[in-house]
Amino acid sequence: MGTIEVLFTIAMFGYIIGNITFKGLQLGTSGVILIGLLFGHWGYEIPPVIQDLGLVLFVTTVGLTAGPTFFRNFRARAFSFAGVGIGIIAAGAGVAWVTAKLFNIPSALAVGIFSGALTSTPGLAAALEATGNAIASIGYGIAYPFGVLGVVLFVQIFPFILRTDLKKEVEKCKQTGNSPGAEAEVTVCGKERPIERSGMLVLSVSLVLGLLLAEISLPLPGGGAVRLGKAGGPLMIGLLLGHLGKIGRYSLKVPGYTLNSLRELGLMLFLAGAGTSAGRGFLAVAAEYGWSLFVGGAVITIIPMFIGYYIAAFFRLDLPDALGAVCGGMTSTPALGALITASGTEDVAASYAAAYPIALVLVVVASQLLTITIP
């Protein structure tokens, strides 16, 4: 089969697997990376340029989507959301570093496990870019399933641990005027003209500026440098342009249907490329390191969630907002869906949107720092 046939065959079977529901849980687009691993094991390849295209499309559209709420939420409760995001990523990175040392796991594999445990696709992209080693995708593929399941279960089980009814907490917040995400509600009533109706012009500008920003290196104390890379640069530009919303009378807003379609396409392209590049060595790596990879990934998922919640509690966030922020800090979209169902309101998405971009950027930086500090 040619490249295009391979790509969409992987996508076809990936979406079939991803849409299988087990007790309300499903892998979604992440089923693509599992099929990609299988095809890579059989010797098929996806050109790196396709993987890179998918990456920049994904993170740019995420930035443009989150930008309008990110800065408003951050101003309203800056320390709360920043604290949750920083705490979760710092804890995850710390556990990943300790795990790598204890089990003698090489840096590329450890960073892949770190990004998989936090279900962070940009983190995987940063790991691949920083290490230049496809083994990072293997670590991601090993840790990702529990990363998804762990956070989904956490937001549903933790209220029972606290002996609290989540839906009653939401009602209580509404009655006191402190509804989850209320600070993010904004009335939009402008008369801006779209620069170009499909939104592709704004998206293209975001991509170009983001890729330019991606190449800027910032020196680190004691030598070395860190840069946002293809995962972080387009994300930051997307957040900025999404926040600005307009230039004079001209709107910078990209239609939702454009953002949703291209975000899904980008994620699919990236996961297909990452999966096939890692598939050739997946079984060998799993056999060599065995259970330590799975245990390490589970611990990296579990510990940061509890730390993130108690940081949110310290800042006196209500339970719905706290759990939404934990989902954002863990960069877990499936968990957000589970939280919306469990809480009975979409308002929890506001705290998720506030913590999510912070966590995404920090995962990129942490991935590069782990690459430097782990042998």
What does this molecule look like?
With 375 residues, the protein is mainly alpha-helical. The chain has a single domain (3-373), classed as Na+/H+ antiporter like fold. 73% of the residues lie in helices and 3% in strands. The chain has helices at residues 3-18, 31-41, 48-76, 78-103, 107-117, 121-131, 135-161, 166-175, 200-214, 229-244, 256-279, 282-289, 291-314, 319-329, 333-343, 349-373; strands spanning 193-194, 217-219, 225-227, 246-247, 250-251. It has a three-stranded mixed β-sheet, with no helix packed on it. Strands 2-3 form a two-stranded antiparallel sheet. Helix 7 (135-161) crosses helix 13 and helix 10 (229-244) packs antiparallel against helix 16 (349-373). The protein is globular, with a radius of gyration of 20 Å. The relative contact order is 0.22.
Compose a concise summary of this entry.
This protein is mostly helical.
Average per-residue pLDDT, rounded, comes to 82
Overall SS class: mainly alpha
How widely separated are the two ends?
Answer: 39 Å
**Helix segment tally:** 16
Helix content: over 70%
Strand content: under 5%
H-E string: HHHHHHHHEHEEHEEHHHHHH
Radius of gyration: 20 Å
Describe the global form: globular
Overall CATH class: Mainly Alpha
CATH topology: Na+/H+ antiporter like fold
Could you give the topology of this structure?
Layout: H1 3-18, H2 31-41, H3 48-76, H4 78-103, H5 107-117, H6 121-131, H7 135-161, H8 166-175, E1 193-194, H9 200-214, E2 217-219, E3 225-227, H10 229-244, E4 246-247, E5 250-251, H11 256-279, H12 282-289, H13 291-314, H14 319-329, H15 333-343, H16 349-373
Parallel strand pairs: 1-5
Antiparallel strand pairs: 2-3, 4-5
Helix pairs in contact: 1-2, 2-11, 3-4, 3-9, 3-10, 3-11, 3-16, 4-5, 4-13, 4-14, 4-16, 5-6, 5-7, 5-13, 5-16, 6-7, 6-10, 6-16, 7-11, 7-13, 7-15, 9-10, 10-16, 13-14, 14-15, 14-16
